[in-house]
Protein: Pentatricopeptide repeat-containing protein
Amino acid sequence: MLKQLVRSGKLAEARCLFDAMLHRDEVAYATLLTGYAAAADFPSAMALFSRLRASSPPHAAADPFVLSPVLKACASAAAGGADAGTLLHAAALHAFAVRSSAASSVFVSTALADAYAKAGRLEMALRVFDEMPCKNAVSWTTLVSSLARAGRRHDALRRFAEMRASGVACDSHACAAALTACADAGLLPRGRELHAICAKLGLDAVPYVANTLATLYARCGDIDRTLTAVSRMGSRDVAAWTTLIASYLQTGRAEEAIEAFVRMLRDESSNSASPNEYTFSAVIAACANIERVCLGEQLHAQAARRGLSHARTVANSLVKLYGRYGRLSAAADVFRESIVKDVVSWSAIISGFAQEGFSEEAFALFSEMRHHSSCPRPNEYTLASLLSVCASAAAMDAGCQLHALAVVAGLEHHAMVRSALIDMYGKSGSMSDADAVFCNRTRDDVISWTAMIVGHAEHGHSKEALGLFEEMCHVGLKPDHVTFIGVLAACSHAGEVELGLRYLNAMNKRYGVEPAKEHYGCVVDLLGRAGRIHEAQELIERIAADERDGVVWTSLLRACAARGVHETGKKAAERVMEAEPWGSGAHVAMANLYASKGQWREAAQERHLMKQKGVVKGAGWSSVEVGGDDRGVGVFVS
Structure:
C-alpha cells in the first residue's frame, strides 16, 4: 500500500500511513525516501533520515537503498540553487557514508558524486568517482553529464572514451551526454564519430538521442543531417519539432522554420506534440528575421491563448520583433507585462528604442535597468545599442561613460562593444580615441577592422582606410560586405576611380562577397564624382534588376545634379520616385537641377508637384553636447 501511494505521488497520504505503522523497517523508510527524492523534497527526506538514525541501529541508515535516495534529494536541491546549508548536508552525508562503509556502494557513491556536481563542487565529485571501487553505466553517465554541464566538454569526452574502454555498456543517456558536449563545443567530427557509435548500438532512433543529434548538427550548421536525425524518430515530440524549427532559424532558413511550425500544429492532434515556450520563441524570431510582423502578431495571439505569451523567452522574441520594425508601443507593452525580465529582455527593449532614434527613452530604460534589483549587469548588446545612440548624436561624453562601464563589466574587448566604441568615437570626431580602442587588444576580429575602415572613410581619411584594408587582408582576416562599403567610400572620397572599380570586380572573385546595392551605390557615386556619368548609368543597367533600388538611383541623381546633366538626372529621379514615392530627395534634386540650368518655371513646377503629392522635405538638424550639471544633448532644427 505504501509503495502504491508513493508511486502515485500521494506523499502526504503515504506519510500518514507510514506514521501509523507499528513496525517500520528499512524497506518502509527507503520507499518513502524514494518518494521524497522523486519530488525533490530534500528537507522532508533529511528529516526522515535523521529520524531513522535516531531510532534505529546504525546499519539501518547505512543501507544503500536508504542513503542513496537522501543523496538524490540533496542533488535535486543543489540543482535548484545550492546554498551553504545544502553543501553542509552533502558533506555530512559523505562523512557518514565513509564511516559506515556505505560509500563502497555504487548507488551511494553515484548519488553523492551527482550531489557534489550539481552543487558546483565538481572536483569533489571527481574525487568521489575516482575512489569508487566499481562503476556502472549510471556512474559513468553521471560523470560525463556533470562535466558537460560544467562546460568541461573535452574532459567529458575523455571520460566517455574511458567508459567505453572499461567495458561498461553505453546506454542512451551516456551517448546523449557525450553528444551534448560535442554540440556545446562545436566538435562536428567527434560528434559524427559518436553518431556512428549510436547507430551501431541501435540508439540513434531513441528520441532523447535523436534530439541531441539534431541539436549537434543544427549548432554546427549541418541542416541536412539535422533533418535526417529528426526524421529517424517514429513520432516527433515537442523537443524534436523545436530543434527542427531552431535549426532552420540558425541556418537562415526562416521561411522553412515557419513551415515546420505549421506542420507541427497540423500534426498536434495526432501526436500530442503541442508547441511550448521555446517553440514559440524560435518561430517568432524567424518572423523577425524576414519582416513577417503580421504573422508574428498572430503567433503572439496564439501564444497568449495557450498561456505562454508571458514566458520569458516568448516575451523576449516578441520585444525583438516589435522593436526591430518600429512597433515600439507593442514592444513596450509586452516588456512591461512580462513577469520575469532578464538582461536579454532589457537589451531588446533598449535596442528597439535606440535604433528608432529615441535616445532619451533608451537611456531612461537603461537607468531603470541598472536600478532594477533582479537584473544583472548589462551585456554586450545593451552597451552596443546605447553606443549607437551616442554615435548618431555625436554624444561623446555619454559614450565615454559607457566606455568606462564596459571596462568595469569586462566587455570592452568584446568585438561588438569594441566596434561600437570605435564607431562612436569616429562619429564624434575623435579618430585618435577610436584608434586607441582598436589598438588596445589583439586585432583579430573583422568587425573592429571594419569599424576603423568605415570611420576613416567617413572622415575623408582615404589613405588610412585603404591602408587598414590591405593590412587586414595581410593578417588573414576575410572582409565582409560592410568592410567593402568603407573601402569603396574611401575610394570615392579620394577620387581613386580605377582602384574602386578593381575592388568592385574583386569582391566576388577574390573575397567571395557578392556585391549588393550599397556597393553599387558607392561605385556610382565614385564615377559620378569623377564626372563619368555615362559609365555610372551603364553600370546600373548591367546589374540585376532587384539591386537597382532607390539607393543606386539616388547616387546617380546626386551626380547628375552636381554636374548639371539634365536628361540622365531626370531618368534617375523618375526611378527614385518609383522606389520611394513619398520621398522628397528626388523632387528637391530635380528642382535644384532645373534651377542650375535657369529653368525656373520647371523648378517651381517640381516643388508644386511635391505639394500636390503631400511630400514634405524633412527638416535638417544637428546636435551638440551641453555641459554643466544638467548635462545632455541639444538638438537644433532648421
About this structure: The chain has 37 helices and two strands. The chain has a mean pLDDT of 85. Residues 516-637 form a domain with the Serine Threonine Protein Phosphatase 5, Tetratricopeptide repeat fold (CATH 1.25.40.10). The longest strand covers residues 621-626.
